[in-house]
Design goal:
Blueprint: E1 3-8, H1 17-32, E2 37-42, H2 68-85, E3 89-95, H3 103-112, E4 132-139, H4 155-162, E5 170-176, H5 190-205
Parallel strand pairs: 1-2, 1-3, 3-4, 4-5
Helix pairs in contact: 1-5
């Protein structure tokens, strides 16, 4: 049975564009997979604990050297990796905060880097590959080629590098200028924002649409 792992990370609630995108994608996935099941994780409302000195080394220490804090941290890694292994498809809503990914997403990735669970400790081959990993990104400003802040989006280039060792390979659908309608200084960019939003929505709607039949 097809299974979707749906993850949100925005802290903006109903105002979040990435949440709207991920909900739209989840609805499209359900329509394409009748009877499919879904696991939902909300990193924005229920963030993971960041790795710390007490338990953070659990992923690199032998199990027989684990303290209680290590064991607790490792159990969370097992839970998060299991969520991915159970899924055929992963949808992640990824807003841009201060030119980077939310810290909750960084923490999620930190838990996933786990030799023996997500990475073969001998061959270093990633064990989570073969899944469709769709990242629905939103950016309040413009970061495209030729813009004053070209290259300032450090979330989209970071994520593929951060999870490369696990075998996961994200594909991105991105909308930018999402703050144009609520930022007076960006008022002249509203048409470009609307175009970017519409293109992203169209791409989401086509994610799992059947290929057109050949004439």
């Amino acid at each position: 049975m097809a299974h979707l792992l749906h993850i949100d990370s925005s802290i903006r609630g109903d105002a979040s564009v990435s949440r709207k995108f991920s909900a739209r994608a989840a609805a499209a996935w359900r329509a394409a997979h009748p009877g499919g099941t879904v696991t939902y994780r909300d990193l924005g409302r229920d963030p993971l604990p960041h790795l710390d000195a007490a338990g953070g080394l659990a992923r690199i220490l032998p199990r027989d050297q684990h303290t209680a804090a290590h064991a607790e941290s490792w159990a969370l890694t097992e839970e998060l990796v299991s969520e991915i292994k159970e899924a055929d498809t992963i949808v992640l809503g990824l807003p841009l905060y201060n030119f980077g990914a939310p810290s909750s997403v960084k923490a999620w990735v930190d838990y996933l880097i786990a030799p023996g669970l997500s990475i073969d400790p001998e061959t270093h081959v990633g064990l989570l590959g073969g899944r469709d990993f769709v990242v629905l990104a939103s950016r309040g400003g413009g970061y495209g080629a030729g813009t004053p802040r070209e290259g300032w989006d450090h979330a989209e280039p970071w994520l593929p590098h951060a999870i490369l060792s696990t075998g996961l390979e994200p594909r991105f659908i991105t909308a930018e200028l999402t703050l144009a309608e609520v930022t007076p200084a960006m008022a002249d960019l509203i048409p470009l924002a609307a175009k970017s939003l519409a293109a992203a929505e169209q791409a989401i709607d086509g994610l799992w649409s059947p290929a057109p039949a050949l004439a």
